[in-house]
Design a protein that fits this description.
Structural class of chain B: mainly beta
Distance between the termini of chain A: 37 Å
Largest interface: A-B, 18 and 16 residues
Mean pLDDT of chain A: 92
Helix content of chain B: under 10%
Distance between the termini of chain B: 41 Å
Shape of chain A: globular
Strand content of chain B: over 45%
Radius of gyration of chain B: 14 Å
Strand content of chain A: over 45%
Largest sheet of chain B: 6 strands, mixed
Mean pLDDT of chain B: 94
Low-confidence stretches of chain B: none
Number of strands of chain A: 11
Helix content of chain A: under 10%
Number of strands of chain B: 12
Shape of chain B: globular
Number of helices of chain B: 0
Oligomer: heterodimer
């Protein structure tokens, strides 16, 4: 099956610093990638949708200047949390959509746990 | 707008028994997919089963089956012969065909505990 990786799997940073999270589709090309945020014991909340070579589309309430998304290639998308603060601590999950016939299946990465001190 | 509602925050079942998780949804679109995802303690999202709305036949994957009632906008998941490894959060999700509406809309989840 298709595999999506995320790096790092967990990161601890100081308040005010920036953190970059990578999402890679390892064995397929993904024209569309999604970034989700999940707080403890809650559901996944879509933050943004990114298409290769174009600007990301952010969901309402998500600060695009704080959560920078780059989808530079068909296998790589990055999420940069700029000037991170403790309230940004969360579990971030990426997902990549593979085009296969009539159905574009979506695969999830293992997630990245961000802790901001 | 699309919504997905899971009314059971937590459920438990004895090993080898059968359990049914409920999900209702709302959409004005006629073409869409419905999904059940499993999120074990590792937090890796795993697709359990998928149903195309145009198909009347209920999807089945081994011990997992759905009861899709399109008119009632209901999409329940039945897990037969429950196993300890089924312990996880289960999310019901809706995806409308194509374009900007092609995002997954998740319910709040049901925490399932399988007891030995």
């Amino acid at each position: 099956g298709a595999v999506v990786s995320q790096h790092p799997s967990w990161v601890i940073c100081k308040s005010g610093t920036s953190v970059k999270i990578e999402c890679r589709s390892l064995d397929f090309q993904a024209t569309t990638m999604f970034w989700y945020r999940q707080f403890p014991k809650q559901s996944l909340m879509l933050m943004a949708t990114s298409n290769e070579g174009s600007k990301a589309t952010y969901e309402q309430g998500v600060e695009k200047d704080k959560f920078l998304i780059n989808h530079a290639s068909l296998t790589l998308s990055t999420l940069t949390v700029t000037s991170a603060h403790p309230e940004d601590s969360s579990f971030y999950i990426c997902s990549a959509r593979r085009i296969a016939g009539d159905y574009n299946e979506q695969f999830f990465g293992p997630g990245t746990r961000l802790t901001v001190l | 707008a699309q919504t997905v509602t899971q009314s059971q925050p937590e459920m438990s079942v004895q090993e080898a028994e059968t359990v049914t998780l409920s999900c209702t949804y709302d959409t004005s679109e006629s073409n869409y997919y419905l999904f059940w995802y499993k999120q074990p303690p590792s937090r890796q999202m795993i697709l359990v089963i998928r149903q195309e709305a145009y198909k009347q036949q209920n999807a089945t994957e081994n011990r997992f089956s759905v009861n899709f009632q399109k008119a009632a906008k209901s999409f329940s998941l039945k897990i037969s012969d429950s196993q300890l490894g089924d312990t996880a959060m289960y999310f019901c999700a809706l995806r409308v065909y194509g374009g900007s509406q092609g995002n997954l809309i998740f319910g709040k989840g049901t925490k399932l505990s399988v007891k030995p």
